[in-house]
Amino acid sequence: MKALYFICLLVLMSVALGGQAPVQSPAGQTPADGYQNYRAMLGKMCPLKHLELLSPGELDDLIEVNFHDALPRAMQTKLDAADTTEKAACANATMGLACFNIAYIRAIDDVKLLPRFTKMVCDSGIVCRAPAECSK
Fold this sequence. Notes:
Blueprint: H1 2-16, H2 34-45, H3 60-67, H4 73-87, H5 97-110, H6 114-122, E1 127-130, E2 133-135
Antiparallel strand pairs: 1-2
Helix pairs in contact: 2-5, 2-6, 4-5
């Protein structure tokens, strides 16, 4: 409980100071988790687009419509199972959609589809100029 309080306090302080809230993975693992791997891949695959500035909440359509639905049915089933496991950590979180999307990216990494997902995000036509200033 103290850890959750501390994380919430850090997020509120960061937002109050005008910075981006630190992204905590659903299970509380920050170093080298799937979400951090994803951000690192973005920096390598399409650095000039600054897609690391996309918030986890802004990835919803890219995740569900563009990526998940384009996978073969067997891979969707495998990804859905990994996603269910990862999203269990969001049950007590207050991050809402961001928590679910971070969990989904971790699931994508779990089933070894992270490079494919990251390439799809890079190819989406979205470019970011600043946090919350991303568009096609």
